[in-house]
Design goal:
Shape: elongated
Bound molecules: zinc ion
Strand order of the largest sheet: 1-2-3
Helix content: 40-55%
Radius of gyration: 15 Å
Distance between the termini: 23 Å
Oligomer: single chain
Number of strands: 3
Length: 71
């Protein structure tokens, strides 16, 4: 399975108190009401910009794999 799965959530006090109060990629603060993305492959919360960056990285890796397969 190569697809990156994220669950988009709104940060709640519950998540911040019990799970994390920072993005686990860039360690920026997560505040109540922020849009956060739960990375189901790595079991961690990411901020929006890290999630977008991961998806771009993942897509470019997949592109390379596809072109290698063609030649
Ligand atoms: Zn981040």
């Amino acid at each position: 399975m190569s697809r990156v799965d994220f669950i988009v959530q709104e940060a709640t006090e519950d998540i911040i108190d019990r799970v994390t109060n920072v993005c686990l990629e860039c360690y920026s603060d997560i505040k109540v009401g922020d849009t956060i993305h739960y990375d189901m492959l790595n079991y961690r919360y990411l901020c929006k910009s890290c999630q977008e960056r991961l998806i771009e990285k993942k897509e470019s890796i997949e592109d390379e794999e596809i072109s290698e397969g063609l030649f």
